[in-house]
Amino acid sequence: MPTVTPNNNFSSVPNKLNKDRGSEKISFTEIQRQEKVAIVSLSASHFVNDAYSNFLGPMLPLLVIKLGLTITQAGWLGAILAVSTSFTQPFYGYLSDRFVKRFFVVFSPLITAVFMSFIGLAPNFFVLSILLALAGIGIASFHPQAAALISCASGDRRGLGMSIFVSSGTFGFALGPLFVTYSVALLGLEQSYFMMIPGVIAFLVLYSQIPNAKNSKIPSSTQISLKESILPIWRPLIVLYFLVVIRSAVQVSFVSFLPLYFTQKGHTLIEGGQMAALFMFFGALGGLLGGPLSDRWGGKKVIIVSMIVATPTLAVFLLTKGLIAAVCLSLGGAFLLCTLPVNVVMAQQLLPHHASMVSALMMGFAWGLGGMAVPVVGTLGDQMGLGRALFLVVLLPIFGFILSFFLPTGERVYKKV
């Protein structure tokens, strides 16, 4: 089976260093150092980018009051953000497979930070939608290439490398609600633009810390056409895709509506943001463990356990309150999101010469389709109550559990590649 080898500037350093220094040992040490710097830098960039991408949910209760939005309109805002950050990702993945640009990694978090920081100033639903769509450009252009570069830099431990990368983004996504709720409480909704300052500072730091991403090379997509690559493995690829759609539908629905769900139950905006952060924080911990576990036990087993445990834990959360509800929400987030790096790595192993494209498919396009569940949940929330609508959402992993048994096991996943 073909594998994604670290065929980038990290692995091309040996010949140059051997000529210059005459020491293979020093060259190997230098490669390892550059790979570690790349993983840390890309993961830090992912943290910043995804922290800003989760501003909408915590600000939604205030925006609903300010603009007089219905729950259905609130759901459409979540869908607009999900679509703009996901359905365009294959396009950026296509470009990244051919032209690995430093811009995608460094500048995308800045674009996200600027436009997401201005949503508090939106005078109406239309302008708010435009700002979210523009912020989505920054989010969408970052993920495909960064995921492919992480795979290259991680070598034979792609599960671990992808877990660090994905979990960094999830931690950022988890801390975003805390940052935005405390900032809005301090500055007010009309001065939300000040929240871009940390993003600008982070951009300046990241600009100087990711020089090695500039000329990186991943396995060329011109070596084998996308059609020829997909034909032998389309069945497991489709199964992986719909597993991501199911997980994303649950995740995006909870992230979008948890603050509103808690404020409807009489809690404060900050308390709602804290619970949303709790869900994503433990989801990040789950993602951090998911990759290494898949390296050891196989991705299929991790996915099966994730799907079968997510439904009961999240259902108990909706049926209880207090400490029990918080614990179940945390466990549900951890089990649901532990497959985040697993799906991406499995897909990259299926299509090694189109790593950016398939990463975009799993991290973006599937996420966008899952995000289309948000307006449906919003509509159901208007009709039957938000709690009941979310309860229907947590039943989706049951279908994922059944679907995961159609994944090949171990070597059979890549046998035909």
Taken together, the total number of domains comes to 1
Structural class: mainly alpha
CATH superfamily: MFS general substrate transporter like domains
Number of helices: 20
Which stretches are low in confidence, meaning pLDDT under 50 for 5 or more residues running?
1-26, 212-222, 411-417
CATH architecture: Up-down Bundle
Major sheet size, sense and barrel closure: none
How much of the polypeptide forms β-strand, as a percent range? Answer: under 5%
- The pLDDT mean sits at 79
Q: How far apart lie the N and C ends?
A: 6 Å
Computed over alpha carbons, the radius of gyration is 21 Å
The count of DSSP E runs of length 2 or more, i.e. the number of strands, is 0
Order of helices and strands: HHHHHHHHHHHHHHHHHHHH
**Shape estimate:** globular
CATH top level label: Mainly Alpha
**Fold-level CATH name:** Growth Hormone, Chain: A
DSSP helix fraction: over 70%
Structure write-up:
With 417 residues, the chain is mostly helical. The chain has one domain (9-413): Growth Hormone, Chain: A (Up-down Bundle), CATH 1.20.1250. The chain has 20 helices and no strands. Helix 2 runs parallel beside helix 7, helix 2 (24-53) runs antiparallel to helix 8 (125-154) and helix 14 (299-319) runs antiparallel to helix 20. It starts with 8 loop residues before the first helix and ends in a 13-residue tail after the last helix. Mean pLDDT is 79; it is low at 1-26, 212-222 and 411-417.
